[in-house]
C-alpha cells in the first residue's frame, strides 16, 4: 500500500538505495555480491522459510534493479551473471519488464469463498437460502460450502449478517484489469506476456513482494557522472510524493543528485492538450466516431491488444513525456533525458524504437527517493529558490483521473467551439468496459479518457505517497497555478501551436500509440 512503510516497501527501498549508492561510489563487484548479506542481516527468516531464501529473493531484486532478467534456477548461475551489460550509461529494458520471482510466490488461491470460525450457526441461515447452486449445507457447527458446487458468486458473502463468509482472490490477479495473471503447473502466479501492458498494479498488490520490475537507476547515475548533461523531466503526479514540498525544492534536490536541471512534464501536457483539442475538432465525427486520449501508455496498449479496430480512434498526439523530452532536446541537442514519474508502463513506452532517441531513462518516484537516500539529501531542509514555470493548472491536472479530458474541454471552450461530451474510466477493467460500449456506438461524438491506474497517475505503481493525499496535492497545485504562480491560466492556443510547429519542423511529430 502506498504511503505505508511495510516490510515489502522497506526491502524495495533498500535495494534501490544500495544500487544508487553503488552507482555514485563506483562499481564494485565484491560489494554487489555482498549486498544481500547487508540488507538481510538477521538470522530470523522474517516471513520466509529461512534466511537463505530471503537473501536469494533480495539477490533477484538487486539484479532487476540493475536492469537484468531473473535467473533460471535449474542450474547454477552467479549473482553477477550478465552484469557487464548493465555497467553502462545507456541500457534499454529487455522484456519482460515485470516478472515474478517464482520461489517468492505464496501460491495464493485464485478465488475461493469459505466460512470462517466467526459463523454463529444462526437460525436464519440466509447463506443457504441465497445460494443459487445449493452449495451450502448446515451442520452442528455451522455452514459448510461444497467447493465442487460453489461458483464463487459471493451472494452468501453479502447475505451473512456476521460477515462470517469471506471471498478471497489472489491479490495480483484481482488487481490486473487485463486478466494477464494465471497459475503455472505448481500453482504459482504467472504473467501472460501477450496480455500484460506493464501497468504494474500487480506489483504493488502482491503482499509477498514476489513481483518485480526492472530499473535504470544504475545507468542513469552512471550517465549523470559523465560529461553528458542529464535533464530530469518530472511528471505532474510528483506533487505530494515527497511531502508538502514546492517544485523549487524538488528542483534543488534534483540538481544535488547531479541533474543539469528540471523541466515539468506539465508543459508537455499543455502541448498535448492543444494538439488533442484540434485533432478532436478536425476528426470527430467526420473521420472517426470518437476520439480517445493518448497520454496513458497502458491504456493505449490495451486498446491495441483488445480493440484493434477502435485503437485507430486513439489520438495520435504524442504523450506529455515525449513532447517534453523532444522540446528539451531541441534546446539542448546533446543532452540526455530522464523521465521521473509514477508509472511502470512509461518504462515500456520509452523502450519503443520511435521514442528511445528522445527519452533515455525512466525512473519512478520510488527510485528517485532511493537516490535521495543514497546521497543523504533531505529535500524538506533545502532552501527555497526562485522558480517559474510555464505549465498551466490544467497541465498539472493530467495526473488525476478526468484531468486530461477536462483540459481538452477547456481549450475547446476557449476556442469558442462549444462543449464536448466526455466519458472517462480509471483502472483497466473499467477502461475495457468503456471501449466495449464505444465499440457498440454508445459514445459516438465523445472524447474518451482512459487511465490504467485507479485514480489516475497518482496511483501509479511507482508512487510512494497515499493516493488520496497525492490527489489532493495535485488538485491544490493545479488551482494554485491557475490563480497565482503560472503565467498560463490555461494552455494558450497560439503560443503552444507555435511550439508544436517548431517541434514538427525540427524533429517531426509522428504519433505512437
**Strand-residue fraction?**
5-15%
* Mean model confidence by pLDDT: 91
| Biggest beta-sheet profile | 4 strands, parallel
Structural class: alpha/beta
Between the first and last Cα atoms, what is the distance in angstroms? Answer: 30 Å
Summarize the helices and strands and which ones pair or pack:
Blueprint: H1 7-25, H2 29-39, H3 51-65, E1 98-100, E2 111-115, H4 126-130, E3 136-139, E4 142-145, H5 155-159, E5 165-169, H6 171-175, E6 181-183, E7 189-191, H7 201-205, E8 211-213, H8 217-224, E9 230-234, H9 247-257, E10 261-264, H10 265-283, E11 291-292, H11 297-306, H12 308-311, H13 320-331, E12 336-341, H14 345-350, E13 361-364, H15 365-374, H16 393-396, H17 403-414, E14 422-426, H18 428-439, E15 447-451, H19 467-485, H20 493-506
Parallel strand pairs: 9-10, 9-12, 11-15, 12-13, 14-15
Antiparallel strand pairs: 1-8, 2-5, 3-4, 6-7
In short:
The protein has 513 residues and is α/β, with parallel strands linked by helices. It has 20 helices and 15 strands.
Descriptive report:
The protein is of the alpha/beta class. The chain is built from 20 helices and 15 strands. The chain has a 4-stranded parallel sheet, with helices on both faces. Strands 11-15-14 form a 3-stranded parallel sheet, with helices on both faces. The longest helix is centred in the first third of the chain and has 19 residues, at 7-25. The chain is globular. The model is unreliable at 485-489 and 509-513 (pLDDT under 50).
Amino acid at each position: 500500500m502506498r504511503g505505508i512503510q511495510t516490510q515489502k516497501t522497506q526491502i524495495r527501498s533498500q535495494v534501490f538505495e544500495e544500487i544508487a549508492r553503488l552507482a555514485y561510489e563506483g562499481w564494485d563487484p565484491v560489494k554487489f555480491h555482498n549486498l544481500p548479506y547487508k540488507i538481510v542481516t538477521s538470522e530470523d527468516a522474517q516471513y520466509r522459510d529461512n534466511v537463505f531464501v530471503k537473501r536469494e529473493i533480495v539477490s533477484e531484486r538487486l539484479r532487476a534493479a540493475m536492469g537484468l532478467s531473473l535467473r533460471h534456477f535449474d542450474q547454477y548461475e552467479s549473482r553477477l551473471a550478465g552484469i557487464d551489460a548493465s555497467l553502462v550509461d545507456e541500457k534499454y529494458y529487455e522484456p519482460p519488464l515485470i516478472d515474478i520471482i517464482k520461489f517468492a510466490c505464496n501460491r495464493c488461491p485464485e478465488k475461493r469463498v469459505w466460512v470462517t470460525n466467526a459463523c454463529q450457526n444462526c437460525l436464519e441461515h440466509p447463506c443457504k437460502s441465497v445460494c443459487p447452486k445449493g452449495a451450502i449445507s448446515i451442520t452442528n457447527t455451522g455452514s459448510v460450502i461444497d467447493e465442487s458446487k460453489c461458483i464463487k458468486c459471493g451472494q452468501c458473502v453479502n447475505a451473512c449478517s456476521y460477515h462470517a463468509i469471506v471471498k478471497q482472490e489472489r491479490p495480483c490477479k484481482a488487481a490486473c484489469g487485463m486478466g494477464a495473471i494465471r497459475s503455472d503447473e505448481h500453482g504459482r502466479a504467472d504473467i501472460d506476456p501477450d496480455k500484460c501492458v506493464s501497468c504494474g498494479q500487480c506489483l504493488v498488490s502482491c503482499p509477498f513482494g514476489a513481483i518485480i520490475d526492472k530499473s535504470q537507476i544504475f545507468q542513469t547515475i552512471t550517465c549523470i557522472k559523465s560529461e553528458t548533461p542529464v535533464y530530469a523531466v518530472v511528471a505532474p503526479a510528483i506533487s505530494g510524493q515527497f511531502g508538502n514540498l514546492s517544485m523549487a525544492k524538488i528542483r534543488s534536490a534534483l540538481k544535488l543528485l547531479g541533474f543539469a536541471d528540471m523541466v515539468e512534464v506539465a508543459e508537455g501536457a499543455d502541448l498535448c492538450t492543444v494538439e488533442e483539442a484540434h485533432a478532436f475538432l478536425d476528426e470527430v465525427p467526420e473521420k472517426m466516431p470518437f476520439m480517445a486520449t493518448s497520454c496513458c501508455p497502458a491504456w493505449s496498449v490495451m486498446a491495441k491488444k483488445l480493440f484493434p479496430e477502435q485503437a485507430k480512434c486513439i489520438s495520435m498526439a504524442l504523450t506529455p513525456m515525449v513532447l517534453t523530452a523532444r522540446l528539451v532536446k531541441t534546446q539542448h541537442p546533446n543532452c540526455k533525458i530522464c523521465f521521473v514519474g509514477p508509472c511502470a508502463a512509461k518504462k515500456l513506452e520509452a523502450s519503443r524504437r520511435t521514442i528511445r532517441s528522445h527519452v533515455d531513462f525512466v525512473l519512478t518516484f520510488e527510485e528517485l527517493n532511493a537516490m535521495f537516500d543514497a546521497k543523504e539529501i533531505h529535500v524538506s531542509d533545502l532552501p527555497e529558490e526562485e522558480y517559474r514555470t510555464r505549465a498551466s493548472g490544467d497541465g498539472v491536472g493530467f495526473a488525476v483521473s478526468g484531468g486530461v479530458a477536462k483540459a481538452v474541454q477547456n481549450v475547446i471552450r476557449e476556442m469558442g467551439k462549444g462543449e464536448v461530451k466526455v466519458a472517462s474510466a480509471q483502472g483497466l477493467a473499467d477502461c475495457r468496459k468503456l471501449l466495449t460500449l464505444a465499440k457498440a456506438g454508445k459514445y459516438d461524438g465523445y472524447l474518451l479518457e482512459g487511465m490504467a491506474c485507479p485514480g489516475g497517475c497518482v496511483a501509479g505503481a511507482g508512487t510512494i505517497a497515499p493516493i488520496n493525499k497525492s490527489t489532493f496535492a495535485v488538485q491544490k497545485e493545479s488551482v494554485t497555478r491557475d490563480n497565482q504562480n503560472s503565467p498560463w491560466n490555461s494552455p494558450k492556443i497560439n503560443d503552444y501551436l507555435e511550439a508544436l510547429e517548431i517541434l514538427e519542423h525540427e524533429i517531426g511529430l509522428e504519433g505512437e500509440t
